[in-house]
Amino acid sequence: MKKRIADDTSLLQAIYDSSSVGIFLLDMSGRIVHANRRMADLFRYTLEELMGSEYVSLIHPLEREAGRQNMLNTMARGVGHVDVERLYRRRDGSEFWGNLTGKALVDANGRTTGLVGNIADIDQRKRTEWELAASQERFERLARTVPCVLYDYILHGDGDSRFLYLNSRCEEIFEVPAEVLMANMECFWQLVHPEDLPRLRQEEQAANLSASQFSSEIRILTPSGRQKWLRLSSRPNVIEPGQSAVWSGFMLDITQAKQLEDELRQLATTDALTGLCNRQSFLRLAEQEMARFNRAGNPASVLMLDLDYFKHINDTYGHGVGDAVLRDFARRTGILLRQVDLFGRIGGEEFCILSPDTDQDGGLALGQRLCQAIAGQPAHCNGLSIAYTVSIGVTGFRAGDPNFDAVLARADSALYQAKRHGRNQVAQM
Fold first, then answer.
1. Which range is least confidently modeled, 232-241, 302-311, 356-365?
2. Fewer CB in a 10 Å sphere around the end CB: N or C, the chain?
3. HSE (side-chain half, CA atoms, 13 Å) at 278
């Protein structure tokens, strides 16, 4: 019994010390009476040095009094919790931003005995946010004032064109000297992405015919192989619409802005933990697939998957290990799927697969393969080997299904049958 208690204590201590956040416990005087190794590492103290020190001494002097009042108020109330971003100072004088979360400790008699909290290092995130904000501000300022590449461009009524002027920033953007592009317009057209070139030529001709402002976004491929996004904007100095005109404008490198758009789009459609489609994205794509079924009758199978006893894994090993199991499941399941299969996380430990051009029997066979594969190999995390299984409900698209929600409900009922009959198995409906 003593050995088991010792083993459990060692395991909990290992999990405690392997946490990515600093964890600490304060007594009623605000002194640190317990902390994990990450807490000591964050502030570059040893654990021994940290014990007995005042928590507020770790806060940057500019925020120290606010931190003290926050701590005292939390202890005084004995309810609620703290969630605040705060500037801290390490032992060597360096500073970092941390996200503090914590709550008062209350004993069985309702008496506050201290405060428990954790600090996550968000310094890089804060700096990234500042850098992005500064970059966006700089981008907007430059777009309003000094364009990256200034140009004069003559466009004749017959479509012939050439640059009359390009400033010195041209070579930085295009990796080609301005003199080369002004001497040979074909060099510029060759730099434009082949998929964007026809559209660009059509847009400039339409703008020339109407003598209106020209604006477009295109991709270029530089001699070094880099792809860049450019925003083009110009106004014509026209004698008569449709005739020769000199267009004065700028070309602005918006590659970073486009990359940020892609990242935001990815965040909006992707489950952050597993990298799979999130629920909203999955359901939207599934409705599109169902519309295809209603038009052409192409079969599709739907599998609802739920990890067995996942709450027990979280309660036993902690949410960090639970997250690792979810990532392991997503990775191993994805290996067994086709590229056309749609795979998403639609709940905590609930996942869904839509397999196009696969009837229900094919979906059942896929579910059995997945069930066997998951049960046959444990997940590994922080030196632990976590065995787990999955229950799967299978159904298929049917004529008369009003929407995908009806299909999902049927797959969910089949999943419930698999759970009710012992888990680690596949049921269909």
1. 232-241
2. N
3. 10
| CB-CB neighbours of 276 under 10 Å | 22
Q: Could you tell me the strand order of the sheet in which 426-428 lies?
A: 342-345, 350-356, 300-307, 390-396, 426-428
- Give the pLDDT score at 7: 47
Distance CA 36, CA 13 (A): 9
pTM, to two decimals: 0.47
Distance CA(113)–CA(105), nearest Å, equals 6
Q: Is pLDDT at 137 greater than 80 in this prediction? A: no
Count the helices and strands in the chain (H runs, E runs): 15, 17
Of 306, 309, 331, which is closest to residue 381 (Cα–Cα)? 331
Phi, psi of 144, deg, nearest 5: -80, -25
Q: Which domains does the chain have, with CATH numbers?
A: 2-120 (3.30.450.20), 143-258 (3.30.450.20), 270-428 (3.30.70.270)
Q: What is the pLDDT of residues 200-240, one digit of tens each?
A: 999 988 888 888 888 999 999 999 999 999 999 998 886 56
Give tens-digit pLDDT for 25-45.
999 999 999 999 999 999 999
Do 270 and 276 form a contact (C-beta atoms < 8 A)?
yes
Cα(351)–Cα(340) distance, integer angstroms = 17
Return the bridge partners of 343, or none. Answer: 353
Q: What is the pLDDT of residues 144-192, one digit of tens each?
A: 456 578 888 888 877 788 999 888 888 889 999 999 999 999 999 999 9
Beta bridge partners of 296: none
3-state DSSP of 69-97:
HHHHHHHHHCCCEEEEEEEEECCCCCEEE
305-339 per-residue burial string, b: 16 or more CB within 10 A, e: under 16: bbbbebeebbeebbeebbebbbbbbbeebeeeeee
CB 356, CB 289: distance < 8 Å: yes
Phi/psi for 21 (5° steps) reads -120, 155
Amino acid at 375: A
